[in-house]
């Protein structure tokens, strides 16, 4: 960590949003863009402004708070040749996979397709292209969620080009780039778009909020990715207001949610001013911070990313729209994870009944010793859960890097094979030349 980061990081208060003083050519104001942090840099791609889709690729260096623009080139071995170097796109999802950013779905003003498009940006080579996918490719859409699940990407919902609302589930294997449509059980969320999603305990997909064409939601749905069963868990709070177009990020068991439009005074006329934090183990919802009405953070289409800086987690927000388009950058330092209670696993009815029987049996024994023992176990469980989250993140990153290295190795092997062919041809040509020379002699 450099001195420049230390300077601005120490100026931030814990759990309070602060605007960052940036330098360099600031990107145009926008919303419905995509953003991700990699190697202490915030990458911003696309978005919309005044009904116009954007095609730029912006980089914000968190070390010196400087903006710059990258113009990626079409990869030489790309099998597609887009009209634009990078197409204008809005309402897309973006995830980091190794040294690449994968852009999934979204609407574009050009190169309209009927199926979901997956694009990539190589952060090392600064190249871009379209990824060829196979299988049951989903219909094109925007406002969907895309969540990384090991070496797979889980996509839910959205709105297609005909404005048809969706609540389908599709899984993309990132190693084979093969789509699979998932037939989830009943109790699925109602069709929606501009919701948020996250993964918990490497098994449960949470869906929050979003909207239809007339209703804004504040519900939380859970999809068990092992059984593909939907459920509607209860939250331990009544502070959750309906919202859509919000942004979210999960850090070590806590789910942070910022912005979003609501229907209090008309469609997207006001933004949600509360930054929420949801402890995912027991779905305890609380308000982490509140901003003034009209703040860029009380917007729809804002992006939210997390950065690990100097041993601390920092939230980074950019852009948004609430009657005005924004291009400011805000940051928040986070304290230790807030969910310090014993994790509560989502159970089937049979498992819940068994757990109730066990609890009843414990209630008949001496309460004091058991209470102390449970407290010790709860504390140990919290520590173990935090360590597991760190290990899961490390494993996911290692898997992504392995996939990227495998792709590079395949490219090297192809180059070696081509060189071998050239050498054989050169050798044959030399033999023919010598034979011709001998004949002339």
What is the helix fraction of residues, given as a range?
Answer: 10-25%
Distance between termini? 72 Å
Biggest sheet architecture = 6 strands, mixed
Strand tally is 29
Taking all residues together, what is the mean pLDDT?
82
CATH class designation of the largest domain: Mainly Beta
Keywords: Kelch repeat, Repeat
InterPro entries: Gal_Oxase/kelch_b-propeller, Kelch-typ_b-propeller, Kelch_1
Protein name: Acyl-CoA-binding domain-containing protein 4
Organism: Genlisea aurea
Tell me what the structure shows.
By secondary structure, this protein is of the alpha+beta class. The chain has two domains: 3-333, Kelch-type beta propeller (Neuraminidase, 6 Propeller), CATH 2.120.10.80; 365-441. The chain contains three helices and 29 strands. It has helices at residues 3-10, 349-363, 367-440, and strands at residues 18-19, 34-38, 41-45, 48-49, 52-53, 57-61, 66-69, 73-74, 93-97, 100-104, 118-122, 127-131, 134-135, 141-142, 145-149, 152-160, 165-173, 178-182, 196-200, 204-208, 220-224, 229-231, 247-251, 254-258, 274-279, 284-290, 303-309, 312-318, 329-333. The strands form seven sheets. Strands 13, 14, 15, 16, 17 and 18 form a six-stranded mixed sheet that branches. The chain has a five-stranded mixed sheet with strand order 8-12-11-10-9. The chain is globular and about 70 Å long. The model is unreliable at 338-379 and 436-441 (pLDDT under 50).
